[in-house]
Amino acid sequence: MAFYENISLEKGMYSNLGKSMTEVLEELDPSVNYVGTELEGLDAFSRQLKRFDIKVSGAASDKVEKFFQTTDSAALFPEYVSRAVRQGIAEADVLSSIIAAKTKISGMDYRSITSTPSEQDKSLLVVNEGSYIPETKVSTQENLVKLKKRGRMLVSSYEALRFQRLDLFTVTLKQIGAYIARAQLKDAVDVLLNGDGNNNPCEGIVSAQAGKLTYSDLVSLWAGLTPYELNTILAPTGAMQKLLEANELKDANAGQTFHGTGKMVTPLGANLIHTQAIDSDLIIGMDKNCALEMVVAGDVVTDYDKLIDRQLERAAITSVAGFAKIYKDAAKKLTY
Hints:
Blueprint: H1 21-28, H2 44-51, H3 71-74, H4 77-91, E1 101-105, E2 113-114, H5 119-123, E3 139-140, E4 147-156, H6 158-161, H7 166-194, E5 203-206, H8 215-224, E6 232-235, H9 237-244, H10 252-261, E7 271-274, E8 282-286, E9 292-297, E10 301-302, H11 304-309, E11 313-325, E12 331-335
Parallel strand pairs: 1-9, 5-12, 6-7
Antiparallel strand pairs: 2-3, 4-11, 6-8, 8-12, 9-11, 10-11
Helix pairs in contact: 4-7
């Protein structure tokens, strides 16, 4: 009998703070031990699914009731739910394109750091021998990062789902993940625009012509971010249409680039991100490498007690995260 088949599974494995069920299983049954075997490529959780012959994807996926055939296999169900939700978050992910750092904490109190360079700091003047070297002061923010819990309550009876295929149930769970991803993106945009409570709201640039968004306005946004790089633009639907209708983005060379490589020419080479988390009359230009920090308190959390003992009924699936601005001037808004 393989070692992974001897592991006793119980719901207490979910009580390890800061660790998912998969991470706990990996400590007990490291994947490195399976290099060169037919199980190479499977993580510890996937090996447990194989142990109980539970197929969670594909046309031949099992029914939900397969998880509840034994006490041990039932202990795997909350982690299956969490992994499906995380997959939905990953598939709807936009945050990775706008955050510079992601910090994972085990508590609920966290202060970020900040540095406000002066114009002299930004210029990096020549330092003569024996002379004073300019300082860059780094300090903790005055206020804590505001963490918000986002999630959904999964409400269903075991009888309603027991005969449903896991492949179909996964689709529902992934949609919960997509909701969490969209809600957290909205939180991130709010911090970019209004600050994180430490007197650091986004400064604005006003379009030269009210109601119009021109290429010249983008150039002004690019110049206003100096010395930071304009590498990311967040825009709602209306602004996206105006941007893509600009003559500078519709010329023959731009079309040839798209047809030849499949890559759309974007404003000033910046990554153009479509989001409805912004008001219709503005866009955000930013340097994603130094504008925003994401703070997460643990991973996706599932009410494992209810899922194991009560077989669904009502179970909360949540994720706690917050955002902090790193350099205030690394993001600016353009109002038109």
